[in-house]
Amino acid sequence: MSCRYLDMNWEVIIFKERFSGLILKGNILRIISWGVLCIPVFFSTPKLQGQTSPKYSNEFLAIGVGARALAMSNAMTSTVDDVTAVYWNPAALTDIEYRHQFSFQHAAYFQGVANYDYLGYAYAVDKDSHIGIAIIRLGIDDIPDTRLLFDSNGALDYDGVQFFNASDIALIFSYARGVSFVGGDPFATGLTFGANFKLIRRNVGDFARAWGFGLDFSAKYRYHDWDFGLMVRDITTTFNAWSINQEELRTAFGQTGNEIPGNSLELTLPRLIAGASRSFIINDKIDMLAAADLVFTFDGRRNVLVNVDPQFGFEFDYEDKFFLRLGIGNFQRVKDFSRDLPGQESTFWSFQPNMGVGIQLEDFTIDYALTDIGNVAESPYSHVFSIRYNLSKLSSIYAENKRKLKEVKDEN
Q: What is the Cα–Cα distance from 153 to 143, expressed in whole angstroms?
């Protein structure tokens, strides 16, 4: 997973990864394609960028969920087919083959300093629609507040040290539905749309708190062995309204001569992710999935390939029970401080490989990802586990497209 920094007002921390390609056909898809092409133009307008939009606003929502996704370098927009679609592409919720599906992940970053937790649930409403809910939390707990470390006489007073937490929490509600009324059955059986409503809560102890909300929109289309996905995060621009407790900060800021921050409105600019993937049947027991995502950002300040961040992922499965996954992403232009000469700046390109495995045990799936191979990134974290639980398998009338490849494989 790639590293980024998240502004939590007192310390900056975060991670992230991406890539994708989009191919659509038919008159309706041409319209969609033109709309997609217009999105970068709209989001790059001076009027929108002139708002208060920090470079890494709400970056805890760019980390990613699920060990499978992290092992494949987050190339999930067209690939995801489980409850984690609430995060990656809500339109893909209709690919779930169970009435209920749950997922959980816990990861400790920076040698346990930061904890990242995810819990998701998806429910099949009927043949064509699913709903989902997920909660994501990134937090650093038990941070010492040393403002009262010295008493009025200047002596150390450890009893005056208190502790606080800094955390970011997002609650996501998702809805997905197929559109069988568009273009006739051959076209419509593979097309679904989805949307997210996000409620965000951020706090830094008693010093600062923020509430925010935003919307995502997504689509997924299956054509034979190909899958195409489109995800527009924060499509309406996500708003965070910060409330600063100035009284808590007045003494410390006054002693250091710093200006006390005031209440503010923070905007998160949209991000477009387009992806394509294809399934291959190697033999009667082994399949392969190849996926690619392209992540487009519109703040003009990313250290990536012309504001486009590519991600590639591969998955091999043996009898749909054992999985091997590989990924490559986080292409970064890095400054080489060791070769800097006066008046010159030396840079080089780096990338981050990832890998992982998975096993299907009846109704449970356990996934593992080893990230930051070769210590390409600077964060000392590597191991991520996630668990998925399935309940009440749906009848064959559901998830017809999801089963199509399996039926072809069985016939062969």
A: 25
Q: Read off the pLDDT of each residue in 87-91 and give the average, rounded to a whole number.
A: 96
Closest to 312 in 3D by CA, of 280, 336, 289: 289
d(CA 310, CA 294): 5
Judge contact between 64 and 74, C-beta under 8 A. Answer: yes
Cα dihedral across residues 73, 75, 79, 80: positive or negative: positive
| Band of pLDDT at residue 160, cut at 50, 70 and 90 | confident
Q: Are the CB atoms for 354 and 382 separated by under 8 Å? A: no
Coil, helix or strand at residue 94: helix
At residue 36, does pLDDT exceed 50? no
What values do phi and psi take at 394, rounded to 5?
-80, 155
Using the structure block, give the residue that is written with the tokens 């008693």.
206
> Which H or E element spans position 349?
strand 347-361
Reference 200, options 57, 104, 297, 67; nearest CA is 57
What CATH architecture does domain 2-411 belong to? Beta Barrel (2.40)
Q: Mean pLDDT throughout 258-262?
A: 78
CB-neighbour burial class of residue 36 (10 A; exposed 0-12, middle 13-18, buried 19+): middle
Neighbours of 383 (CB within 10 A): 13
DSSP string computed for 273-336: EEEEEEEEE-SSSEEEEEEEEEEEE-SS--SSBTTEEEEEEEEEEETTTEEEEEEEEEEEEEE-
- Per-residue pLDDT, averaged over 339-351, amounts to 68
Strand bridging mode 208-223 / 191-204: antiparallel
- In the chain, where are the structural domains located? 2-411
Q: For residues 14, 91, 44 and 238, what is the CA-based torsion angle, rounded to 10 degrees?
A: -60
Tokens 């600063």, located at residue:
244
Closest CA to 87 of 59, 56, 65: 65
